[in-house]
Amino acid sequence: MKAMKKQILMAACLLLPALPARALDLHGLKPEEVAVWAAPVESGKELAGHRADSGVNPASTMKLITSWSALNLLKPGYRWHTGLWSAAPVRDGALQGDLYWLGAGDPRFNNDSLLNLLYGLRLRGVQRIDGKLVLDKSAFKGVSSAHDFDEDAGRAFTVEPDSHLTNLKVAWLNFYVDAGGARVALDPPLAGVSVNAKLQAGGQGGPNDCSDVRRYVSIANDMRSVTVSGTLPPSCDGVKTFVNVLDHDAFASQDFVALWQALGGAGPKGAGLGRVPAGACELAGHDSQPLTVAISDINKYSNNTMARTLFLTLGKEGGGGEDTRANAEHAVRRMLAANGISDETLVLENGSGLSRRERVSARLMGRVLLNAARGPYASEFLASLPIAGEDGTLRKRFAEQGPRLRMKTGTLKDVKALAGYWLGADGRRLALAVIVNSPRAPEMGKAMDQIVADLIDRFEASK
């Protein structure tokens, strides 16, 4: 009978979650406000866990799951190809019909990329476009949402993904203060955007006192007209800031026209939407830089629009149904399943963390980190993360830990998160995730950082 009781007790103990060697100090956070997970990469044996299986909002640390999926499914050398197509002949320097811009959803497609594309068109011998510019938007069938951010509409971080995302759909206001006074110029000069300047030169300021021109000017922007007013000191000569203007189609079309004309081209005669016709030929093309460059931008600077565009690219390349967002979610879940990682707590909206809906568990995040660190693209994944005290969103954090700490940050209303790695001097690595969901999150940054520091100390002491 005693032996039977002992066996029952032993079996019951096996069902209990493993307890850490010593209690985790939450540094003022309430137990229900935070989820924590940490384990050495080399062993995978849990070093610490607190609410590690609870579904929590990860904010921008969700970008790590999207990046990991993309590296494995698309491969590091993946490139987006953007093309200009037409079925019309070119005679005497004139394209005698419509020009089709086949967008690829390149998240880093900027004005340099567009100029490269247009220069290729000029090399083809085209000087004038007699037809329309037609945007072929077939790359994405449906775009992922980011609900409940209406109050942030118009801000750059809420710009939606698009097959023709150009310059992240922002234009630049360039400020000049010289003998001619104070003035501002829009770059590129978009035909559908008017700039009303009420500027004067003056005021005091040192030679390096204009790191943010918005200290001196106010900018009112309704997406089609921009009013700028204020007094600019001489130190603001040559500085610039961005504004989010127009919708995607208007921005891409007008940017195309502005740069085409800057190259000496004429036309096109209007713009529209359509599909590349059968029998059309590619007149010019542009290949993006490799996927690894985009992932570095996404993770180091937490770019929501680029992350959402990359998420949709997973759906575009993964095939399946007519809903690109749904295809992207299926691709991520298949990737998790293929690596034995439970997706039970995963809720995906757009893959960027700019979401009130998205959920992960700290353990799910941690297991992705372990898989990424052990996988064939570990160096590419690690290189995309902000370096403590040096760059990206960690440039001013964790100076004491220094560059051995690389972590993705996440911030939303009521959410603060960190996920990444500590690289020990002996070559061992610690994967860790700390996620706070609480109305007190904005004031708990120091507590989070201290939890990370404690986990590092515990790991170093475990040698």
Automatic annotation (TrEMBL):
* Pfam families on file: Peptidase_S13
MF terms from GO for this chain are: serine-type D-Ala-D-Ala carboxypeptidase activity
Gene3D superfamilies listed in its UniProt record: D-Ala-D-Ala carboxypeptidase C, peptidase S13, DD-peptidase/beta-lactamase superfamily
Query: Keyword Protease, does the record have it?
Result: yes
Signal peptide residues are: 1-23
- Name a single GO biological process: peptidoglycan metabolic process
Q: Which UniProt keywords apply?
A: Carboxypeptidase, Hydrolase, Protease, Signal
NCBIfam families linked? PBP4
Query: Which named protein is this?
Result: D-alanyl-D-alanine carboxypeptidase/D-alanyl-D-alanine-endopeptidase
Q: Please name the source species.
A: Chromobacterium rhizoryzae
| Gene designation per UniProt | dacB
